[in-house]
């Protein structure tokens, strides 16, 4: 039997992976260096001379990293002892074992893109933790917060919609409830357009009210399994016994506006009783510029709570309450910031796999999660999603993702080719989206 197809890699000159390693990644490193520069006086105020030395050290480590990348040096092991260092270094050895003798060592423009891109973010983190006392500095925090502030109009519209809906939700009939469910799903999908790594760290925020665009955006949903999600959850609701639990897990992606859309979805699931418990999974370290950490999660809820708009602040109050009462649980795990594809989870992080198995449904938000679900490989467009998951089936799951990398499976015959003919960049601009489900029919 033939194995899975090759990984996406910058060795394919002209591919999106190649352009990303060549152009976008160095830009992100340059922005990170600028950010450190700009915070110089803050570091001095906080830590005196030691803060300045630390800033210099972190900058020199990041400049070195950018140079290694741009000159296609071998990928070197991590040096600073941290919880995941050994796993990373073992993975590097594994990458070495995949190479032919003539390839030499794993390198930026040779190895799988998923690996080198994750490695870059892990090295950025290493540069920071090697530079105490600024070792808890989140280099991307400012950008994430800015994205949230710039999306205020949409945030107000979403919170208002949710609060109005909550007032009448008990009176809605099946059909009306389903329609509202489909709306919050689509909001969460298009919220994923706003990640900051695609733009090389430039701001992309949701400046206009997304709710007014849902109908116009429908043609851009390439795989639409929303009905299956409704069937699954409405069935859980109907058959659920008193006191028993319907658990939905959301593997989060970006902070800022996207996180708000995910929290709106999560609140709706509780208010509509389609679920009784939500587990959120975030990142333990700053990741792919805009991904959510526990600090972002808490920060955003606090921002909402203190808003001048009564609906927005009501959301903040309600969400804090969900957390206090344990209906919402935020969890993290180092696996999410490792380079492994998800098919390796049961081996590498069996505890996490076992935890996910308890969910009735798992949502995987965003592009990077899709790449990890499918192994970031050159699959044919028509290969079934179930097959591309390569054995990763902890529970029924659904990817909610706008397309920002050259991997897409589960399309109709001819669909991908047609898109390529009319829009050569359809895979990478974030214009298209999918709700792709895997689970019992
Ligand atoms: O390709 C653009 C990119 O930076 C990819 O590296 C990554 O897959 C993606 O954006 C991150 O997007 P998301 O935040 O949706 O996971
Ligand atoms: Mg992201």
From TrEMBL:
Name the chain's protein.
Uncharacterized protein
What organism is this sequence from? Ovis ammon polii x Ovis aries
């Amino acid at each position: 039997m033939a194995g899975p197809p090759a990984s996406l890699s910058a060795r394919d000159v002209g591919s999106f992976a190649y352009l990303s390693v060549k152009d976008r990644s160095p830009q992100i490193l340059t922005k990170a260096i600028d950010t450190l520069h700009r915070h110089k006086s803050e570091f001095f105020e906080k830590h005196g001379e030691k803060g300045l030395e630390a800033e210099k050290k972190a900058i020199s480590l990041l400049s070195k990293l950018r140079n290694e990348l741009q000159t296609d040096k071998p990928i070197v092991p991590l040096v600073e002892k941290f919880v995941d260092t050994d796993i990373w270094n073992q993975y590097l050895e594994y990458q070495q074992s995949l190479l032919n003798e003539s390839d030499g060592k794993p390198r930026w423009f040779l190895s799988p893109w998923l690996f080198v891109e994750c490695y870059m973010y892990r090295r950025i983190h290493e540069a920071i933790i090697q530079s105490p006392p600024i070792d808890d500095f989140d280099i991307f925090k400012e950008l994430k917060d800015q994205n949230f502030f710039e999306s205020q109009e949409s945030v107000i519209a979403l919170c208002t919609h949710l609060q109005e809906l909550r007032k009448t939700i008990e009176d809605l009939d099946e059909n009306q409830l389903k329609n509202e469910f489909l709306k919050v799903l689509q909001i969460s999908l298009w919220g994923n357009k706003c990640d900051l790594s695609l733009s090389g760290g430039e701001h992309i925020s949701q400046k206009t009210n997304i709710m007014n665009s849902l109908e116009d955006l429908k043609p851009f949903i390439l795989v639409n399994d929303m009905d299956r999600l409704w069937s699954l959850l409405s069935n859980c609701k109907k058959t659920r016994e008193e006191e028993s639990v319907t658990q939905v897990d959301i593997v989060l992606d970006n902070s800022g506006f996207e996180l708000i859309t995910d929290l709106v979805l999560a609140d709706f699931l509780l208010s509509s009783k389609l679920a009784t418990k939500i587990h959120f999974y975030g990142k333990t370290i700053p990741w792919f510029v805009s991904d959510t950490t526990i600090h972002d999660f808490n920060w955003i809820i606090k921002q909402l709570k203190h808003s001048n708009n009564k609906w927005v602040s009501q959301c903040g109050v309600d969400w804090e309450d969900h957390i206090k009462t344990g209906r919402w649980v935020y969890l993290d795990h180092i696996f999410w910031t490792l380079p492994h594809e998800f098919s390796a989870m049961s081996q590498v992080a069996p505890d996490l796999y076992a935890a996910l198995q308890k969910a009735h449904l798992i949502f995987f938000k965003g592009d990077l999660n899709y790449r990890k679900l499918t192994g970031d490989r050159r699959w044919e467009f028509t290969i079934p999603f179930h097959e591309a998951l390569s054995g990763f089936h902890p529970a029924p799951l659904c990817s909610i993702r706008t397309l920002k990398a050259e991997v897409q499976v589960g399309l109709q015959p001819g669909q991908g080719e047609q898109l390529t003919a009319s829009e050569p960049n359809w895979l990478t601009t974030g214009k298209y989206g999918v709700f792709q489900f895997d689970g019992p029919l």
